Amino acid sequence: MGYSVFFGHSSVFFVGGNGDKSGRTALAGGCTRAWWDAQCGDGTEAEKAAAMGKLMVDGGPVIDEAGCAYSGATNRITKAGCFGAAEVGMVAYVVETPTPGVHLATMRYRISGVDAGGDWIEIGDATGLDATVSVKVGGAFDTLQSALDETDASNRSVWIYTNLAEAPGGSIIADVGGGSVMRNTFKRIEGFHSVPGDMARGGSRYESALEVLQNGGVDWTRCISLDGGNGGFSVLVLDGVDNLVFENVAVRRTGAQHAVYFATPCRNAVFRNCRFSDVQIVVDTAAEHAVFDGCYSDDDIVSHHYNLRGSNGMLIGCVARLAVGTNLCNLVGKAGAVTGCMAVGGQYGVRVINAGGYATVLNNTFFGTEVAGVLLDAGDGAIIKNNVFCLSAGAVGIYVRNGGSVTMSDYNCYCAADGSALESTGSGYAGGEAPSAGEHSLSVDPEFANAAGYDLRPRSAAVVRGGAPQADGKATVMGAIGQEYVFARRGRTMNAGRMAIVR
Amino acid sequence: MEQSAVYQRFKDAAEALGHDGAAVQRLSAETVRLMADADGAEATATFVENMKNKLARQLRARARRATSTWIEEQVRQRFAGAAVRMPDDKIAVVYLDGMDEEAW
Fold it and tell me: Chain B partners of A150 at a C-beta cutoff of 8 Å?
């Protein structure tokens, strides 16, 4: 039967593709990761565009030939003059004709050898008998669903690069071919505009989550839109697959449904630089180690944004604009972390719920939160450090409502958004003690650069130099934004002076 | 995969034959294609393997649900509020006082 490319090689596939994408197909080939990396040694956009140009034409296969002769003795597929565009490391979709699978299994084979004259390619991992076959080399998949179904990351990682905005008629279901937890393999779905990487940090189409907030909305040209069209279904469904990574995609308009629905508690799902808008809730899941990194969620989301009920749920560097009465994150009955995030508005920043609920809340900025920055509702424990709680007047920084312990709380800044004093901590639990604010915490105005424009860089020297010390004993900055952005000009001057001293 | 007609045909055929998860995992690619009435163009080896994995997973989950429900019925004769969960195929966890619904 032989082996498909997925058995022994990391691989790269596309959805959409280059040009007008009209040639995209459910039967696309792709390439090995090694081939892609060799083509893009410097990682430039020009290299990537050229590599895509070798793999596809308007999203279609670069080679699409019927009536080729496969030799079981040599593993060569021959048709005179038809394989000039093939290279070792590309992936060929091969199907026997007229009846598939009789002498050669239908699958995606790695091309292991090519004829300099373009007459044949070799698929060294094949095992079969002489047959007539059709061959497609390269090309892009027609939909993300096809790419998810037709690839398998259980042995080797798979990258799926998509630049196809989709408005599917039903959920896009990832239920097969995920990565392997034990083998550390992942299936990575990455949105791009022209070439892979251009929507990621450092790319020409990158937009940070904070920029989305400051710009007043999502720029749909800087992410790949997966639009539910208010069709009453979750756009992304994960069912029984682990180690899935989604990057640079925007999930929107799911009506009364979740943006992302976990049908089973999958492990190690990562959402990086994604956007969530006009959905019921971003996610409500018992999935283990669900990670949201640099994502933006909008105030048109009806319910709480992230309801994490699995172990080690995590928000890292996320930004959220929250509607009245909603929470950024609920950590329910399991341990999780919220670090480096910015939440504007809403009811609670982080709510820790039920026995077994633990929270690590570090370096966040909560702005205009209505009721409390961190709420313990019978959660077991929380570590709360280096945060800026600039909340609505009358709110409380950290509040224990139905019991729970704040294991560590210090180096936080408490201030009401209108400049008035803010109650730092409190407890409504009968017989319970209010958490300590911590001896290094501050009740000062962080003096945001431009709070109205969500430029939440603290300028107060006490806040900038008041964070928990690093290992070398030097103070860090409270909140989600570091110091270098605030005093950039002064920093350059000081560095020049120090350079002179060093000389 | 869930929405694929090929998968649905395969699923129907396997259920009609009474296969369990282990039996599905043992099926050959050729048998799967026959059961799914699929030609090779729409059922690559990867797709077939994925179909087997998915159906096997579903059948195992169904068996776990049936088992945990049966155990729950037995235990509830003594502990009315008991709940049973099966995190995997071999271990049943019995909560004699039930499980809290996740609060918001």
Answer: 44, 46-47
